[in-house]
Amino acid sequence: MKDIFKRREILKANFLELEKVATDQQKNIPPPALEKPFDVSMKQIDLPELDLNNFSKKSLTIAIHDRKSHRKFTDTSLTLLELTYLLWATQGVKKVFNKNGKAIASFRTVPSAGARHSFETYLIVFNVETLEPGIYRYLPFENKLLFLYEEENLQEKIVEATLGQKFTGESSVVFVWSTIPYRAEWRYNISAQKGILLDAGHVCQNLYLACEVIKSGTCAIAAYHQQKIDELIKLDGKDELVIYLSPVGKIK
Question: What phi and psi, each to the nearest 5 degrees, are found at residue 65?
Fold first, then answer.
């Protein structure tokens, strides 16, 4: 029981403990980059500009009412425009704050403790119009997708990584969110983990509601094999690790 009680500490708002710790922000250490660097020579796909008026036919009240988890998807493809809408709804950038010519914070379509936004969005694409199957990364500041690599037997590998949940491999695309913990630790140190977990919930709820708008479905997944999913996305599992994922597909 002692181990259980110890693990529960992450659920507590122990911000008074921060008084005993000097955070990197308090030490005047520059904040970490808002976006993980990438090789500009890699293939990038421009995402279409959104006209939000085209996605306002369903009211927020009805979307909240209709929201549910879906584990059965049709063979209909998602369009690139629909995927762009889902990406915008979950991590879209609304405003960037600069200091001395460097971006230090951003406001997005989801709340985040201290505007730290510790997440990167990866996509396991199976059935999206104009996109080759494979693994991509969303570049929210550029409004682009970065094609990372193809992977043999990708459907089987995501099912294995999600402990046999077959519907992950039957979706059009799996949203995979990683966290780079230091983005939050820079400001909150030992209290950062609570905020990261709360922020992940904000992101996925936006995905659920946005899916309702485009007549699609999703089902959040927190039951997965940590090492296998990190290895599939090619993350080190320490400075960056998968925190949450959710497959998306068209529904009847």
Answer: -65, -40
